[in-house]
Amino acid sequence: MTTASATALVLDLAGTFAFALNGALTAVRAARLDIVGVITLGMITALGGGILRDVLLGALPPSTFSDWRYLVVAAVGGLVAFGLSRQLERLATPITVFDALGLSLFAVTGAGKALALGAGVGQSILLGAITAVGGGTIRDVLVRRIPTVLRSELYAIPALVGAAIVVVPARFGLGGLVWALVGAGVCLAIRLLGVRFRLEAPHPPGGKSDGDAPAS
């Protein structure tokens, strides 16, 4: 395994763990599920976006089913969240932070994998965003709430920016760990600043501004 591929795997597994924690904490806090439901929702949140990406790229079977480490890391993340549920179920901040971390890491690893498999610049950026928001969207649907990506919060936009920071330099031969970390850092910063200062994506003319209008 090359250094680049090893780094991509580490980032991907880190994102998997962060999203598994987020999905499981969401299950504990919002849906009041049992241990099976908590771990299942954590794994779906962690693995759903990557599965969508791999299916769209024709990279079959998806990495989730060809590498046991993804399933194990996702399950461990769900178990950790379940074990700490009493301490964390009343705290919104951990859920938001883990979601932002997963979003950032998956945006850059998803875009990088798309590039490696021959996708174009625009397609790679889009697939990076799909990797980042796909699992969270499935999570929100399962707990019967409007997906975050369809509300006016800054969610898909940070993922697109992070993916672009990885893809564009790579097209000029400047790809590598540094740009992946920069892309993840910028995505994380935009997402957390958006949450902190209640920044929203643009609304359509005449649309509502209370957070329930569609946005990217």
TrEMBL record:
Chain segments annotated as transmembrane: 6-28, 35-56, 68-85, 97-119, 125-142, 154-170, 176-194
Its membrane topology: Multi-pass membrane protein
Domain of life: Bacteria
Listed InterPro entries: Gly_transporter
Domain Glycine transporter: 10-85, 97-168
Alphabetic keyword roster: Cell membrane, Membrane, Transmembrane, Transmembrane helix
Xref: Pfam families: Gly_transporter
Location in the cell: Cell membrane
Family the UniProt entry places it in: Belongs to the UPF0126 family.
UniProt-recorded name of the protein: Trimeric intracellular cation channel family protein
